[in-house]
Amino acid sequence: MESEQLFHRGSYRNSYNSITSASSDEELLDGAGVIMDFQTSEDDSLLDGDAAAGTHYTMTNGGSISSSTHLLDLLDEPIPGVGTYDDFHTIDWVREKCKDRERHRRINSKKKESAWEMTKSLCDAWSGWLVVTLTGLASGALAGLIDIAADWMTDLKEGVCLSALWYNHEQCCWGSNETTFEERDKCPQWTTWAELIIGQAEGPGSYIMNYIMYIFWALSFAFLAVSLVKVFAPYACGSGIPEIKTILSGFIIRGYLGKWTLMIKTITLVLAVASGLSLGKEGPLVHVACCCGNIFSYLFPKYSTNEAKKREVLSAASAAGVSVAFGAPIGGVLFSLEEVSYYFPLKTLWRSFFAALVAAFVLRSINPFGNSRLVLFYVEYHTPWYLFELFPFILLGVFGGLWGAFFIRANIAWCRRRKSTRFGKYPVLEVIVVAAITAVIAFPNPYTRLNTSELIKELFTDCGPLESSSLCDYRNDMNASKIVDDIPDRPAGLGVYSAIWQLGLALVFKIIMTVFTFGIKVPSGLFIPSMAVGAIAGRIVGIAVEQLAYYHHDWFIFQEWCEVGADCITPGLYAMVGAAACLESARKKQEGIVGSSRVCFAQHTPSLPAESPRPLKLRSILDMSPFTVTDHTPMEIVVDIFRKLGLRQCLVTHSGTVLGIITKKNMVEHLEELARRTEPLAPPWYHNKKRYPPSYGPDGKPRSRFHHVQLSAAQEQGEGAEEEARLLDSTAL
Question: Residues 201, 205, 209, CA angle at the centre, nearest 5°?
Fold first, then answer.
């Protein structure tokens, strides 16, 4: 009410002048003591203002060089509650943007003074590319290290290479000349734990000893992983993608991207994958890459002192993390742009792509998969799919949706149950129990005993002449009348039927254990387990369709395109389609969407159906105050705020005092006036108070472009002290 009374009385505590009309094409608007340029770029100068202490002070507008105090000094002042961000608070995007503009203006104003200042300006300009390069190099190197260490420790549960302890099972048998086609994984150099401990390679005793050692190593890796997370870096658990999205939206989580989190997550991610738990390492790699980007950003003041600029580096780091996780640089950029980033300017797009390329190049140079390829699952299919196959593809899509719905609901229910049970108070015990159950059930089944990535790779692979898997145990039909391909569709053998039963059990095992595994206090990703569920279901469906086409090739749906002896159906393609369907359906959980409850900001909760979940009442934590900007805010930023936030009004303040209000209608009038390139209107919050001095002086000459405002304190009789503004012509000062 006080500001409204002051408005009707025609008096404010501070009155500000406006500028005269400019003859150039760029119209400037002086609002709230600052000249605001609507058509300026980031490199344009901001206005300086100096204020002396006391009741009598002078403000000088226009960005004169003689000004002693800059906007950056005002922004860096330790104002209580402003400029410093506590844990679990949000950043001020407008303030950070103003700080960066003023820093850029100051560098540009000094770069012509000396060669050293020019060098500093060039270093500042290239610091963005340098920090994303370092982030890409570190992300690629850490991803390669994690892949190599995880493969080695996974094989360590089954045996050891005595000739070279740092070799995994596959590398140990590369140089052996005693391997056979049927048993290519068996070589004298690789020794199982049963051979090493009891000296038996076959028999019940050997099986029991290998079983015990498998459980022992799985529990050891899981216990070590959860202990490191609990003691040194609690933020290292989980996937990290939901938290990365929260941080990129402007939220502060101290320590989540720190050096301890990076080191512990890198180590425990290897241990968690090697323990055999139903989780993946692809999601946490995004967290690892963002930790690298956050650490390297502190080497450059441009990013270490500005939270908004730092989030540009984190956006590029998330693209590099997806690039090394799946070998897809372009996919990493799209993931960063569409899924996790809140502020993504055009320059960040190119820097993200460059960081993803650098990370992918480093990973391929390390060659952790041993096949000189970048992608995690490299397959080639030479047989095209046909129109009839759309029906089983649709069924796989339906299965993927059902799997996603079941997983999200079941995992949410288990997370709620965890809070009320002993597992919630003892996370180490929970990890040990889950790891023990996983190891006990997984060892008898060869498909659950495999590493999840190796399982998906085997399911994607098409049967060829060099494949010795049980999935390729087909009977050769010598009575085929016509041979079209080298490897035609053949009747399934005993190995294929046995593999189908084992895959069915593995499917049930993966579905159940993934629900209980995702959410425990170890690094865990959801991409690979979801792909494994879909790949198993797709492979089973593919084999079924293949046998259906072989035994019933005379049906009308097969007559036109599937001849006898032809390679018509590719089961590996069905596995890939199923993996994609399940991955997309479960992706929402990875992004942090955990429920379907209604969110109510109203005072009274609306009536809901009885079967609907409980609504989330957030009115108590809702900030009901209107959006405000200070009188130092450039007008182009105010225009962006109205456009991007969809505001209808915005308050203008100065040192906590409300000066006026900007409405959406005022912004439209300003934009229309600027489009006509006429004299700009008064500031919207100025309430159309015509205090413009005439454009020309008494002598007929145009007045100076900038004026000065002198504020002094005046005493009123019978009233309190009230400031009075007097507009002085520049010639009078």
Answer: 85
Residue pair 452/272 in contact (Cβ under 8 Å)? The answer is no
* Residue 163, Cβ density class (10 Å: 0-12 exposed, 13-18 middle, ≥19 buried): middle
Which range has the worst mean pLDDT, 54-63, 303-312, 366-375?
A: 54-63
Rounded to whole angstroms, the Cα distance separating 337 from 318 reads 10
**pLDDT beyond 70 at 551:** yes
Q: How far apart are CA 410 and CA 405, in angstroms?
A: 8
**Burial of 513: CB neighbours in 10 Å, binned 0-12, 13-18, 19+:** buried
**How many whole angstroms separate alpha carbon 347 and alpha carbon 93?**
18
Q: Coil, strand, or helix at residue 301?
A: helix
Contact status, residue 102 vs residue 46, Cβ threshold 8 Å? yes
Q: How many residues does the chain have?
A: 733
End-to-end CA distance of the chain: 36
- With both helix axes pointing from N to C terminus, report the angle between 427-442 and 204-232 in degrees, rounded to the nearest 10: 160
- Least confident piece of the model among 235-239, 290-294, 343-347, 411-415: 343-347
544, 547, 667 from 478: Cα distances, Å: 22, 17, 81
250 contacts 96 by C-beta, under 8 angstroms: no
Is 443 within 8 Å of 548 (Cβ atoms)?
Answer: no
Q: Taking a C-beta distance cutoff of 8 angstroms, is the pair 630, 653 a contact?
A: yes
Q: What is the mean pLDDT of residues 311-319?
A: 93
Ramachandran angles phi, psi of 630, nearest 5°: -90, 170
Dist CA 25 CA 621 (whole Å): 47
The residues that bridge with 658 in the sheet, in sequence order, are 653
Can you list the alpha helix ranges (DSSP code H) found in 157-201? 169-172, 193-197
Calpha distance 533→519 (Å, rounded): 18
Q: CA–CA distance from 713 to each of 56, 383, 691, 709, 725 (Å)?
A: 6, 87, 20, 13, 9
Q: In angstroms, rounded to a whole number, what is the distance separating the alpha carbons of residues 86 and 92?
A: 12
The pLDDT assigned to 701 comes to 53
Note whether 356 and 323 are within 8 A (CB).
yes
Using the predicted structure, report yes or no on whether residue 607 has a pLDDT greater than 80.
no
Cα–Cα distance for residue pair 706/623, rounded to 1 Å = 39
Task: Label the pairing between strands 649-654 and 657-663.
Answer: antiparallel
Those residues whose C-beta lies under 8 Å from the C-beta of residue 34, and which sit 6 or more positions away, are 47, 49, 61, 631, 632, 633, 634
At 201, the amino acid letter reads A
For the chain, give percent helix, strand, coil, nearest 5. Answer: 55, 10, 40
Q: How far is it, in rounded angstroms, from Cα 224 to Cα 241?
A: 23
**Whole-angstrom distance, CA of residue 46 vs CA of residue 98:** 9
**Of 472 and 232, which is predicted with more confidence?**
232
Q: What is the DSSP letter of 620?
A: G
Reduced to 3 states (helix: H, G, I; strand: E, B; else coil), residue 292 is helix
Indicate the helix (H) or strand (E) that contains 368: none
Most confident among 34-38, 436-440, 628-632 (mean pLDDT)? 436-440
Q: How far apart are CA 626 and CA 652, in angstroms?
A: 10
Q: Which residue, 113, 108, 5, 17, is CA-closest to 62? A: 17
